Structures are given as structure tokens and as C-alpha cells.
Amino acid sequence: MARNPVPLLVPCHRVVPSSGGVGNYGYSPETKAKLLAGEGVVL
């Protein structure tokens, strides 16, 4: 997932850790949280 050249087309940002939180994301955890929130995911 770290080498995903098209992260918005192949949505690797939807993978979250089972322990909670958003985990890491190449563009930043804050960006990942915003993308998930925009999709209606409650964190």
C-alpha cells in the first residue's frame, strides 16, 4: 500500500488498524482521517 501510485482510485486509506485509530498514511494521518470522514466513516 505504501507504493500505491493512485491512492484515491485504489483506496488503501480504508485500511485501519484493529486496535483503533487511523494508522499511518503516506500523505499524513490527518489526511487519512479527512478522507475517511468524507466517506462517512465514524472514527
Task: Tell me about this structure.
- With 43 residues, the chain is mostly helical.
- It has one domain (1-15, 22-43).
- It is 23% helix and 0% strand.
- It is built from one helix and no strands.
- It has one helix at residues 29-38.
Short note summarizing the structure:
With 43 residues, the protein is mainly alpha-helical. The protein is 23% helix and 0% strand.
Can you tag this structure with a few keywords?
43 residues; mainly alpha
Question: What is the fold's blueprint, element by element?
Answer:
Layout: H1 29-38
Given helix and strand content, the structural type is: mainly alpha
Number of E strands: 0
Any idea what the shape is?
globular
Strand content is: under 5%
Number of helical regions = 1
The number of distinct structural domains comes to 1
Oligomer: single chain
- Cα distance spanning the termini: 21 Å
List segments where confidence is low: pLDDT < 50 over at least 5 consecutive residues. Answer: none
Q: Whole-number radius of gyration?
A: 10 Å
Mean pLDDT: 83
Order of helices and strands: H
Helix fraction by DSSP (H/I, runs of at least 4)? 10-25%
